[in-house]
């Protein structure tokens, strides 16, 4: 057996269960306990597109260095699912540990001599201690939390406090849960050498942090942005956004006197209708959005082109999942970059914001509305399943009470009264953005919205020059968009380097960790994280300032690289893709290997 | 092309309660074919909106794609119009009325727009009972693409080229009634006397009011053998029940009650007075309405009038208990919980 490395606050704990057995709350309890001990943690779900009975995994990474990405390593595996036992056993890293329910014997064939297997008779203990069948199943999960608390030094007092908070209104449940915890805890203490080398230890202070999913944060952002209309068609993995918006609206948006709602959520018949509703609501001046995923964007494309050409603000939230087609709905990818950038037929292009974590989901869910209304065009917020549905530790969200929505160029009756005549598509300010009016306010502001050819006065046209006039002005607006979207984030290497690395969205964590690892090996990379399309000036500057730029993305076809090549095609040969598209969150290994392999190949080529 | 109509204010012309003349409810000049049924419907809309004294800016005119969908440009130039994408007018109207419930929504659609490409949205705007007039200008044919049958073409009807339509038609009114519509009427573009009051009742109705108006296409579907021609419709239409809208302020005259009449009181105080032409017809009972329609359809008759009404079906906003004030007019301060609430909220995330 290989010598086991000490892994204090630096381990991956993976739990294999069956979905629908209540393991989620047990896993959440473990994650929260580590968080309360001040340990930086992330929790990633790996789940099937199914309701009950199929394998599911939850992976908690504790990292005193604060790394958030997936690793590909498993230090402690809790194998609760006999169906996947072999796979789970295989996945444990050499020197690691596997905990299983020893109530039933496991196949002797399934054995490894480079890891330690620990059997805990969880079902047996719970069957003896609890009488109701459903409770026995649930408590089995709570019991492994107890066993892990002993094995990994997770603070029992913290667990107890968490249980008391969770079941504040049902004290009886605190007792039964605690009983199950102690069954696991005592068994482990009596039978194994606790604690294991992979274990927790109380460290810094997490009081300035929270644990939240991207979808929750996005819904909260929409609430704070002042969105009043949400239209959607349920689709994994975006459903959580509307769930979150709905929950927060119920909490903060009810008229205290009448119980009436200061919002309107419509579950549409399909994504086409959801897009139409969002466009209609924004047209009358209500902030409206739709959360969806790639297949939804495909269906909405006709309307997106309409809103682009008719210049109606609209917000589309794309929580990306694996495509093409139905693909793998419960796996993650960054595969809709091209789709969002150019959605719809004809010459169209749309701004996209790329949050890297739930904290940015919250902030960008606000700025996406400002941009849409300022630019009078569809704007995308493109997160993904990894950000949207996994548990992230991020700095606490803050809010500036002096914020007021940017409603863009809207003329009301007062302004209209001073004008001789209102026309809809005339570029008065030279920024490509024209003035609009809202229905219901003033007959002088009336105009006709159409997706057919129109001129700067808003009238129907089939005249070539008048058509082109509008299309060219939309390009001026695109230039304005470049100055309004969030800047890219630059992190310089500790020394001057000709190597750059560029990423966006949920690849951020893997790049941060990979840069540190590569730096330790003497490879220095300047890092630019793109936060929006169109690219602001500093993105092109960054490309030009480096001889080699690694472009990290989670899709097969290097979609972001393609967009970059369109912006700077003269230096296209400097861009080197690092791609990850198997549906799992990108690990830092992938980035380290991508860079190393390329550098090695280059060296060989020179030699 | 858009042709602006010269605005002439004639001295002494009649004005409505808010001081507007009929001309104030007109739009651009129509570019449809001379004699198109749609233009007669436009005239009926102008008349109805003027009589109801609806403020032009209070109105939104919505449409999809097709000849029918051009018509919102031809009435009430002081109202915002929205020519959306094919078959998707209902969703845009739903969103617009979700954002501002004080607007008066009029959607003008066609048989292709509503019964083929937009069949889904047609069903769901009814299901949600969005408070609007949903008017189908039904001519049984695709005009802009030169004469293909639409889904409302009757089996056995012939095209201009002589082809016989083999498929059963999708009957807009029977479909709407069976899907649970709260107001369904049918009329004929050539029967202004019936159409104007029906439009007024539909606008006053607090829910989704579907009006299927047979509107012959003079270019592609007005020949012998067509069941959507002027001649065929005139010969086969059967008035079953008429409707009059009586405003809350108007005194209900005794003469209204002559014959077989039935008042339907709306929440805003106005009354739709139903006048039964055929005493057998009961537009307040779904089974009766559907049975009657089917009996007469099998005889080749086109039943017209206010075919079904239930003014008590809750509309979209009542269903979801949206506040009375239009959402778009809500102060941001009322919508945003502020920094303190955010801090408090996040205690549960630690």
Structural summary, described in words:
- The complex is a heterodimer of chains A (607) and B (350).
- With 607 residues, chain A is α/β, with parallel strands linked by helices.
- Chain A folds into four domains: 7-205, Pyruvate-ferredoxin Oxidoreductase, domain 3, CATH 3.40.920; 212-395, Rossmann fold (3-Layer(aba) Sandwich), CATH 3.40.50; 410-484, no CATH class; 489-606, 3-Layer(aba) Sandwich (Rossmann fold), CATH 3.40.50.
- Chain A contains 19 helices and 25 strands.
- In chain A, α18 (559-567) links the parallel β24 and β25 (575-579).
- The longest helix of chain A has 21 residues, at 171-191.
- Chain A is globular, with a radius of gyration of 27 Å.
- The two termini of chain A are 41 Å apart.
- The longest helix of chain B has 15 residues, at 37-51.
- The model of chain B has no long low-confidence stretch (mean pLDDT 93).
- Chain B is globular and about 75 Å long.
- In chain B, the strands form two sheets. Chain B has a ten-stranded mixed beta sheet, with helices on both faces. A two-stranded antiparallel sheet of chain B has the order 5-6.
- Chain B has helices spanning 37-51, 89-99, 111-115, 119-128, 172-178, 192-204, 230-236, 286-298, 316-320, 332-335, 338-346, and strands at 59-63, 80-83, 104-110, 132-138, 141-142, 148-149, 183-188, 208-214, 237-246, 261-265, 271-276, 302-309.
- In chain B, α2 packs parallel to α4 (119-128).
- In chain B, β10 (261-265) and β11 form a beta hairpin.
- Chain B is built from eleven helices and twelve strands.
- Chain B is an alpha/beta fold.
- Chain B has one domain: Rossmann fold.
- Chains A and B meet through β9, α7, β11, α9 and α10 of A and β2, α2, α4, α9 and α10 of B.
- β19 (448-450) of chain A pairs parallel with β2 (80-83) of chain B, so a sheet runs across the interface.
């Amino acid at each position: 057996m290989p010598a086991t490395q000490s892994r204090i606050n630096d381990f991956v704990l993976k739990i294999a269960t069956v979905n629908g057995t209540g393991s989620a709350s047990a896993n959440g309890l473990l994650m929260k306990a580590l968080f309360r001990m001040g340990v930086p943690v992330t929790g990633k779900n790996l789940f099937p597109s199914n309701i009950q009975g199929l394998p599911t995994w939850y992976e908690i990474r504790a990292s005193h260095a604060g790394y958030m990405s997936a690793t590909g390593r498993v230090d402690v595996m809790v194998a609760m699912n006999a169906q996947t036992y072999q796979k789970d056993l295989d996945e444990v890293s050499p020197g690691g540990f596997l905990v299983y329910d020893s109530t039933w014997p496991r196949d002797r064939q399934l054995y490894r001599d480079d890891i330690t297997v620990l059997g805990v008779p969880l079902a047996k203990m719970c069957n003896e201690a609890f009488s109701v069948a459903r409770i026995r199943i649930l408590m089995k999960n709570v019991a492994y939390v107890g066993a892990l608390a002993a094995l990994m030094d997770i603070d029992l007092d913290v667990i107890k406090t968490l249980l008391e908070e969770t079941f504040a209104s049902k004290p009886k449940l605190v007792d039964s849960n605690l009983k199950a915890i102690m069954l696991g805890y005592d068994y482990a203490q009596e039978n194994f050498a606790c604690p294991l080398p992979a274990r927790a230890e109380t460290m810094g202070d997490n009081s300035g942090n929270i644990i939240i999913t991207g979808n929750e944060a996005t819904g909260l952002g929409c609430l704070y942005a002042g969105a009043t209309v949400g239209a959607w068609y349920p689709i994994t993995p975006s459903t959580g956004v509307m769930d979150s918006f709905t929950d927060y609206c119920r909490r903060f948006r009810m008229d205290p006197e009448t119980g009436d709602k200061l919002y309107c959520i419509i579950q549409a018949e399909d994504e086409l209708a959801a897009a139409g509703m969002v466009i209609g609501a924004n047209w009358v001046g209500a902030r409206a959005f739709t959360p969806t995923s790639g297949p939804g964007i495909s269906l909405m494309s006709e309307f997106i082109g309409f809103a682009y050409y008719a210049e109606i603000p609209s917000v589309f939230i794309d929580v990306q999942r694996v495509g093409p087609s139905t693909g793998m709905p419960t796996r993650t990818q960054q595969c809709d970059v091209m789709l969002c950038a150019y959605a719809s037929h004809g010459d169209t292009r749309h701004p996209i914001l790329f949050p890297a974590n739930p904290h940015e989901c919250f902030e960008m869910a606000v700025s996406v509305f400002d941009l849409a209304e300022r630019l009078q065009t569809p704007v995308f917020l493109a997160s993904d399943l990894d950000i949207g549905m996994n548990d992230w530790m991020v700095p606490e969200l803050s809010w500036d009470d002096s914020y007021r929505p940017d409603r863009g160029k809207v003329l009301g009756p007062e302004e209209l009264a001073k004008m001789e005549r209102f026309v809809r598509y005339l570029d008065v300010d030279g920024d490509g953005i024209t003035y609009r009016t809202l229905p219901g306010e003033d007959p002088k502001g009336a105009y006709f919205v159409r997706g057919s050819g129109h001129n700067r006065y808003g009238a129907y046209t089939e005249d070539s020059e008048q058509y082109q006039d509008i299309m060219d002005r939309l390009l001026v607006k695109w230039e304005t968009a470049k100055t309004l979207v969030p800047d890219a984030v630059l992190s310089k290497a500790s020394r001057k380097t000709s190597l750059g690395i560029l990423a966006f969205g949920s690849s951020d964590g893997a790049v941060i960790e990979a840069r540190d690892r590569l730096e330790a090996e003497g490879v220095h990379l300047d890092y630019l994280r793109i936060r929006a399309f169109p690219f602001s000036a500093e993105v092109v500057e960054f490309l030009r300032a480096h001889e080699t730029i690694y472009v990290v993305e989670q899709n097969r076809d290097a979609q972001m690289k393609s967009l970059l090549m369109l912006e700077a095609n003269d230096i296209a040969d400097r861009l080197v893709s690092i791609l990850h598209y198997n549906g799992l969150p990108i690990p830092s290994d992938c980035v380290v290997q991508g860079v190393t392999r390329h550098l090695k190949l280059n060296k060989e080529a020179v030699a | 092309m858009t042709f602006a109509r010269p605005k002439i204010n004639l001295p002494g012309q009649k004005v409505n309660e808010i001081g507007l003349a009929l001309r104030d409810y007109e739009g651009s000049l129509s570019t449809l074919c001379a004699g198109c049924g749609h233009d007669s419907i436009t005239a009926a809309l102008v008349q109805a909106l003027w009589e109801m004294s609806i403020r032009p800016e209070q109105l939104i005119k919505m449409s999809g794609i097709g000849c029918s969908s051009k018509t919102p440009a031809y009435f009430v130039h002081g109202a915002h119009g929205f020519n959306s994408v094919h078959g998707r007018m209902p969703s845009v109207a739903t969103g617009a009325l979700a954002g501002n419930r004080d607007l008066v929504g009029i959607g003008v659609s066609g048989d292709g727009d509503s019964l083929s490409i937009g069949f889904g949205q047609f069903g769901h705007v009814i299901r949600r009972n969005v408070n609007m007039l949903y008017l189908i200008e039904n001519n049984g044919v695709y005009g802009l693409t030169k004469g293909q049958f639409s889904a409302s073409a009757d089996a056995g009807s012939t095209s201009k080229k002589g082809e016989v339509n083999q498929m059963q038609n999708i009957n807009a009114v029977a479909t709407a009634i069976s899907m649970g519509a709260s107001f369904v009427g049918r009329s004929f573009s050539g029967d202004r006397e019936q159409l104007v009051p029906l439009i007024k009742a539909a606008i006053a109705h607090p829910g989704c009011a579907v009006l299927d108006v047979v509107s012959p296409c003079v270019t592609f579907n007005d020949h012998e053998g067509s069941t959507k021609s002027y001649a065929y419709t005139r010969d086969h239409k059967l008035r079953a029940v008429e409707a009059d809208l009586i405003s809350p302020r108007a005194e209900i005259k005794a003469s209204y009650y002559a014959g077989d009449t039935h008042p339907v009181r709306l929440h805003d105080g106005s009354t739709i007075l139903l006048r039964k032409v055929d005493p057998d017809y009961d537009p307040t009972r779904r089974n009766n309405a559907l049975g009657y329609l089917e009996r007469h359809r099998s005889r080749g008759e086109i039943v017209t009038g206010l075919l079904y009404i239930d003014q008590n079906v809750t509309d979209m906003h009542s269903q979801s208990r949206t506040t009375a004030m239009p959402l778009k007019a809500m102060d941001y301060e009322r919508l945003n919980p502020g920094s303190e609430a955010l801090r408090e909220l996040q205690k549960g995330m630690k």
